[in-house]
Amino acid sequence: MMASMEIYQRIVRETKRRRKGRREWKIEIPNDVMEEIVMKLPVRSIMRFQAVSKHWESVIKTRDFGARHMAHQRNKDPKLMFVSYGFDHIRFEQRDLETTSLEERLCFEIEEINGPIEISECCDGLVCFYCLTQAVRVINTATETLLPPLPLANFQRLHKDHPDPDLERDVMVEDDGAVPVPFISFTMFGFGKDNVTGRYKIVWLYNIYPATLNKKKKTRCEVFDLEERRWRFVTTRPLDHHQILSNQRPPCANGLLYWLTGDEQGYPSTQTKLIVFDIHTEMFQVTSTPPFITPDASSDKIGLCNLNGRLCISELKGDCKQEFWWRVEECNKWERIFSVDMNSTSCWFGGITSQPLTPLAISRDNNKVVLSLTYQGSLVDFDLDPDSTVYHLYYSEPYKQMKGEKSIELSDGLTRGGLRPENARPSPPRKGLSLFAG
Fold first, then answer.
1. How far apart are the C-alpha atoms of 220 and 241, rounded to whole Å?
2. What are the C-alpha distances in Å from 159 to residues 18, 81, 322, 419?
3. What Pfam families does UniProt report for this protein, alphabetically (predicted)?
4. Which strand ranges, in their side-by-side order, compose the sheet holding 391-396?
5. Own/partner long-range contacts of 340-347 (Cβ < 8 Å, ≥24 apart)
6. How far is 91 from 430, CA to CA, in rounded Å?
7. Structure pTM?
8. What is the rounded CA–CA span in Å between residue 28 and residue 313?
9. DSSP characters over 281-341
10. Model confidence over 78-113: pLDDT tens digits?
C-alpha cells in the first residue's frame, strides 16, 4: 500500500512538473516574420493588436508599416462601397466585387444636412462628404472613425455670405403640384495622397466665383492638408485662359489629380485640354488629351477615372462605341484595355447611349470589368477576353430607399453633379458606388 501511494505521489509530482514545463515553454517568432503575419490582417484586427505591447503599437503606427499594409491590400480585388444618407446619418455598405454579397455595413450619425451632398473619391479607405455651405467631414471607413469638421474653405464662406443665383437652377418635383425646387450645382474637389510624404490633401479647383472682370485669371485653387488642418491658396497661373468643366469629380492616380477643361461657362467644349495637378509639388500643368482622343471631341464625351490604381481615359464616339485606355507608368505609355458597344448595354441603362460609361473595377479573379452609368442603379460586367462580346447584368438596385433617405454616389462611381431631391426630374434616384481598397 505504501509503495502504491509512493508511486502515485511520484506520478503527481511528475505530472505537475511537466505541466509547469509546458506553461513555461514558448515559441520565439522573429519580429520581421511577425510583421509579415500582422500585415495580412484586416485593419480592425491590427488596431486591436496594438494593445499587445508598446513595441507593436509603435511598429504599427509607423508610416512604413501603413504603406506596406496598403500595398498588400492593393494586390487583392477592390471592394464596392454603396453609400446613402438621411437627414442625420450617412451609411456605407461594403460588397464583395465578385459576388456582390454584403460584407459590412457602417452607419454614422451626423449633423443635419441642409442641401445637396457630395462625396469625394475614396483614398486608402478615407472618404470626404460635404455641402456647398457646410463643413467637409472625413470618414475612415476602415477604422469606423468620423473626424472633426474641417474649417470652411474660402469658396464655401463666400457662397454662404453671398449666394450666387447662377449656381442654382429649378428642378421640378413630381407631387400633387409641380413646383420649382432650388438645386445647387457646384465644382467637386479632388482628394488624394502625396506619394512622397504620405500626406492626404483636398484640392478644390473652381472657376472664379463670383464673376470677375479679370478676363485672364479664370480659376482659383484651395488646398487643405489633413495634417496642417488649414486651407491655403496655390497658384493657378499655368491655367490662365482655361476654365474647368463643371460637374466633374477629378480622379487621383499615382499622386496626380486630373480635370478636363470646359468653355467660359464651364460647359462642354470641343477644345478640351487635360489639367494635371501634382499633389506633392502643388503645381499645375495643362496638356493636350492623348493622341487616341479625337482632336475635336466634346469634353462631355470623355471619361476620366482611377481604374485599379491607374488613370483611365475613354471617349464615346459617334458610333456609340467607347474605347478605354489606361496609363502604364512603368513604361510611360498608354495601353488600350477594351472597347464597349453602348447599343449592347443600353437595355440596362434606360436606353441611354449618349453618355460615357465609367469602369468601377477590374476583377483579377475572373478578368471582368464592372461598368456604371451616372444616375443609373444598375451595373453591367463585361468579359475582357478579346473574343467576348457578351455583357451581363452585374447588379441591380434591389430595394426601396428608406423614407427621408437619399442616395449618393461615391468615388469611382462618378456621378456628375450634386444630389437631386427625391423624385426629381430629369434623373431618377440612384444608389452610389465606390471602390474601396481591401
1. 12
2. 76, 31, 38, 18
3. F-box (PF00646), FBA_1 (PF07734)
4. 358-363, 368-372, 378-383, 391-396
5. 340/371, 340/382, 341/389, 342/316, 344/389, 344/391, 345/371, 345/373, 345/380, 345/391
6. 15
7. 0.78
8. 51
9. TTEEEEEEPPTTS-TT--GGGEEEEEETTEEEEEEE-TTSEEEEEEEETTTTEEEEEEEEE
10. 788 888 777 778 888 888 887 888 888 888 887 766
DSSP label at residue 214? -
Cα–Cα distance measured from residue 341 to residue 130, given in angstroms and rounded to the nearest whole number: 35
The number of residues in the chain equals 438
Closest to 244 in 3D by CA, of 205, 202, 191 = 205
What band does 214 get if pLDDT is binned at 50, 70 and 90? low
DSSP code of residue 349: T
> 3-class SS at 207?
strand
**C-alpha cell at position 266:** 464651364
CA atoms within 13 A on the CB side of 104: 15
**What is the mean pLDDT of the segment spanning 182-188?**
58
**Residues 102, 80: Cα–Cα separation, whole Å:** 10
Q: Are 202 and 128 contacting, i.e. CB atoms less than 8 angstroms apart?
A: yes
pLDDT digits (tens, 9 = 90+) for 147-168: 999 999 988 888 777 666 555 4
| Domains recognised in the chain with CATH numbers | 30-75 (no CATH), 76-436 (2.120.10.80)
Indicate the residue type of 64: D
The secondary structure of the chain in percent helix, strand, coil, rounded to multiples of 5, reads 20, 35, 45
